[in-house]
Amino acid sequence: MQITHELTDSAIGLLSGKNIAFVASLMKDGGPQITPVWIDYDGQFILINTAEGRVKQRNFQRDPRIAVSIIDPTNPYNTVSIRGKVIEQITDGADDHIDRLAKKYLGVDKYPFRTPEEKRIILKINPDKVFTISSE
Amino acid sequence: MQITHELTDSAIGLLSGKNIAFVASLMKDGGPQITPVWIDYDGQFILINTAEGRVKQRNFQRDPRIAVSIIDPTNPYNTVSIRGKVIEQITDGADDHIDRLAKKYLGVDKYPFRTPEEKRIILKINPDKVFTISSE
Predict the structure, then answer these.
(1) Please, are residues B95 and B116 in contact by the beta-carbon 8 Å criterion?
(2) How far apart are CA A100 and CA A119, in angstroms?
(3) Which of A23, A101, B50, B128 has the greatest number of CB atoms lying within 10 Å of its CB?
(4) Do residues B48 and B24 touch, judged by C-beta distance below 8 A?
(5) Looking at chain B, which residue has its C-alpha nearest residue A66?
(6) Cα–Cα dist B55/B36, whole Å
(7) Taking the domains of chain B in order of start, what are their residue ranges?
(8) Cβ contact (<8 Å) for A33 and B66?
(9) Do residues B34 and A67 lie in contact, with contact meaning Cβ atoms separated by under 8 Å?
(10) A120 to chain B, closest Cα gap in Å
(11) CB-neighbour burial class of residue B55 (10 A; exposed 0-12, middle 13-18, buried 19+)
């Protein structure tokens, strides 16, 4: 078993694959909150797609600190846990991005849960601290 | 799909089953941290077994606020997300408890990763806010 503080190939595989990630944000009172999300990695930043007004989107606007954790569902000894910051909230291209995530996770061309009034947002996350466990 | 703020049977099933839970604690600077853990439910409190000196154990000693999230690996539309507090850290019975968790998760009678110097601790969590999504 290997423990490293780098985004190893194993960690990048977890961030890029069809895995559910868990993200923590901070509520107004400073307490933690977690939600499961789809996840993406662009080679440098971790990307999450949410909608304006959601609890975590408002939380990150107030305090950009975030934690992200993923385990390999086929091998719980492959995990990556990250602490970082949401360095940008991007609306440009966010609709196309959620469609690409729907393709990856659901195999469909269009995100099927969109509501008429929702405005999608990409949360761009810089991974400051990485903790990877790999069974290889 | 049902969204409730109760520990429904579906939520209790997730807490009691052989599922990996993700727990968030607060670092000294107030930033969030997440780790995957084994999970247990005693009918009233959520129980996590950790060891003295681990990051999250020290974090909860400083600030007891916690978030816990689980998804059903066979159906990602069954999830429970909880915010609460670690109301007690219990050493009494913690060795037997980690053995019971090893039975549940690994099918073995004794927790196989114990190190000679480690002191196990049960984190007893009161669920203050519950958010359950159930596909049923």
Answers:
(1) no
(2) 16
(3) A23
(4) no
(5) B32
(6) 13
(7) 2-134
(8) no
(9) yes
(10) 20
(11) middle
pLDDT tens across A88-107, in order? 999 999 999 999 999 999 99
DSSP strand pairing (B2-4 vs A32-37)? unpaired
B61 reaches A (C-beta below 8 A):
no
User: Which residues on neighbouring strands pair with residue B122, listed in sequence order?
Assistant: B49, B90
CATH topology (fold) of B2-134: Pnp Oxidase; Chain A (2.30.110)
- A83 contacts in chain B (CB < 8 Å): 27, 31-33
- Cβ pair A102, A56 in contact under 8 A: no
Tell me the average confidence (pLDDT) per consecutive run of 10 residues in chain B, 136 residues long.
86 94 97 96 96 95 97 89 97 97 96 93 97 83
Name the minimum distance, in Å, from the CA of A43 to any CA of chain B: 22
Please judge whether A30 and B26 are an interchain contact, meaning their C-beta atoms are less than 8 angstroms apart: yes
Token pair for A93: 């291209």
Tell me, yes or no, if B31 comes closer than 8 A to chain A by beta carbon: yes
Distance (Å, rounded) from C-alpha B24 to C-alpha A122? 22
Calpha distance B48→B21 (Å, rounded): 9
Residue A61 token pair: 């606007």
Residue B33 with chain A: CB contacts under 8 Å: 24, 67, 81, 83
